[in-house]
Recover the amino acids of this structure.
């Protein structure tokens, strides 16, 4: 249900990560979040999604999680861009280090805490998008973007840690080791009332929500 595309430059002065989420069975892209090491940028279906076509060309290396078999082919076909960058699929890098279980599983193994968004996954992201589309619930979109951005910020941490673990077996570990930067603060806040309501399968009620009930 969900997909990830992360763009990274391994120069420690210029790190890049971006995330892609898809709706339904993967028929179309709903959001992309891009983190450039300092700021977060988001692209939304029906708004500014096509801007990603131009922006992705700024980067030389794509790092994905399971992107070899899904993300890159999907982006090429849906957005009509070659996406012929150099590519590292972090799923296989982490597996070679003994870390498996999907992106969320790897996050847990590295001690990354998703806090209130723990348990929200790619399928739930689709529910948030549908809630926004069908009922005009802006809080659902904000929650979806908060989820996307958290994936991006955590992915950069995983990339740096995996890179450093790989370096540990080389004679140039000290010279090439990357330090972990303080992640940017997400500009989006998850609405836990929306999350709990969707977990219970309840439809949105904007009248009650507007009154804070």
């Amino acid at each position: 249900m969900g997909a990830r595309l992360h763009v990274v430059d391994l120069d420690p002065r210029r790190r890049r990560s971006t995330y892609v989420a898809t709706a339904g069975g993967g028929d179309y892209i709903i959001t992309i979040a891009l983190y450039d090491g300092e700021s977060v940028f988001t692209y939304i279906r029906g708004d500014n999604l096509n801007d990603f076509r131009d922006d992705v060309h700024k980067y030389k290396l794509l790092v994905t999680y399971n992107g070899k078999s899904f993300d890159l082919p999907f982006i090429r076909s849906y957005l009509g861009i070659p996406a012929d960058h150099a590519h590292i699929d972090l799923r296989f890098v982490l597996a070679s280090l003994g870390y498996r279980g999907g992106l969320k599983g790897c996050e847990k193994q590295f001690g990354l805490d998703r806090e209130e968004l723990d348990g929200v996954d790619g399928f739930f992201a689709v529910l948030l998008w549908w809630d926004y589309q069908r009922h005009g619930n802006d809080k659902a979109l904000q929650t979806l973007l908060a989820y996307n951005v958290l994936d991006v910020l955590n992915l950069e941490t995983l990339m740096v840690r995996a890179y450093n673990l790989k370096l540990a077996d080389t004679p140039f570990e000290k010279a090439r080791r990357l330090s972990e930067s303080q992640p940017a603060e997400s500009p989006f806040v998850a609405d836990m009332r929306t999350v709990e309501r969707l977990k219970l399968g309840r439809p949105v009620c904007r009248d009650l929500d507007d009154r804070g009930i």
Notes: Strands lie at 4-7, 17-23, 28-35, 40-44, 61-65, 86-89. The chain has one domain: 4-210. Residues 7-15, 206-213 have pLDDT under 50 and may be disordered. The longest strand covers residues 28-35.
